[in-house]
Amino acid sequence: MEKQNVSLRGKDILALKDFSAEEIRLVLDTAKEMKQIIHRDIKKVPTLRGKSIVTLFYEPSTRTRTSFELAGKYLGADVVNITSGTSSIVKGESLRDTLYTVSAMGVDAIVMRSKAEGAAEYASRVVDPVIINAGDGAHAHPSQGLLNLFTIEEHKGHLAGLKVAIIGDVLHSRVARSDMYAMRTMGMEVHIAGPKTLLPRFLYEEPGIIVHERIEDAIKDADVIEVLRIQLERMKGGLFPTTREYARIFGLNPERLKLAKDDVLVLHPGPMNKGWEISPFVAYSDNSAIQEEVQNGVAVRMALFTLVLTGGKAE
User: Fold this and answer.
1) 178, 192, 197, 241: which is closest to 27 by C-alpha?
2) What is the pLDDT of residues 65-88, one digit of tens each?
């Protein structure tokens, strides 16, 4: 489908379950153009000159927050960062009042991360600026899902028909949920494996998802393996014996990697617990695109800003 037949202008980016295949394709194609800007000596275009963006983060972040900030600045926008530890949030200001305050300043877009699932959707209902969800609890992380697709397509040349294995802590992973929606929308075959205590019950009834008890079965002949981080900060304990046991039974190591296709692509949303869910050898092997994902994240977020705020291409 041609780009002019679909538009994201003014659309809140809340979850990839809201995206059609044509909308995902538009983002991926636009991100290709954006990546060329990142490779320039002077990484600056006037596409969003006069636009203002606020990043509102209630959780710590390095990759996502910095990526959104750079994406906005490369496009010429004014970007202001707000974190919970350096704002009136520490004085007890509510999310609603913070949103009202930021919106009253005339901003065009708010990038939000929150521990509360549904926070971004709530924001989209109470204020006018475009809302981009940068992660809400274990619910959704749409830009990460899109950058994963972008990275896969760069390496494989296509998406439809690829076998993807997602292994690890699906229960607490907003990335996994975004990936599963987007990958199925784009015609990919999704296989899941991990400790039963970390696999949500809905997976077993979800069409187009194949759940395995052993990660060896999930990654056999896989084109792509996405390793999920053990999210100890979200766990209440008792979900698996020890990190050593987790690494032994569910960690992606060189021996297990051999079960996949020779050109398998390894992804990880970061930060990595090396030696737990993924071995350092695999993380830095020729099969890994983990560092490349970081750069692609900037390109995809540039694409999202361009599409939702202007509907067009970067100048």
Assistant:
1) 178
2) 999 999 999 999 999 999 876 556
Look at the chain and report how many structural domains it folds into: 2
* Parent domain of 96: 3-139+294-309
Look at the pTM and tell me if it is higher than 0.85.
Answer: yes
Q: Looking at 25, 141, 184, 301, which residue is catalytic?
A: 141
Range from 65-69, 158-162, 216-220, 311-315 carrying the lowest mean pLDDT: 311-315
Q: Are 76 and 176 in a shared domain?
A: no
Whether residue 244 lies in the annotated active site: no
Active site residue 155: no
DSSP string, 26-57: HHHHHHHHHHHHHTSSS---STTTT-EEEEEE
Residue 63 is a catalytic residue: yes
Other beta carbons less than 10 A from residue 94's beta carbon: 10
> Could you confirm whether 64 is annotated as catalytic?
yes
Query: How many residues belong to the chain?
Result: 315
* Structure token pair of residue 24: 């995902």
From the candidates 30, 47, 64, 98, give the one annotated as an active-site residue.
64
Is 315 among the domain residues?
Answer: no
By the 10 Å C-beta count (0-12 exposed, 13-18 middle, 19+ buried), 6 is classed as middle
Look up 191 and say whether it is catalytic. no
The answer to whether the beta carbons of residues 76 and 49 sit under 8 Å apart is yes
Token reading at 216: 């060896």
Catalytic residue among 3, 43, 63, 212: 63
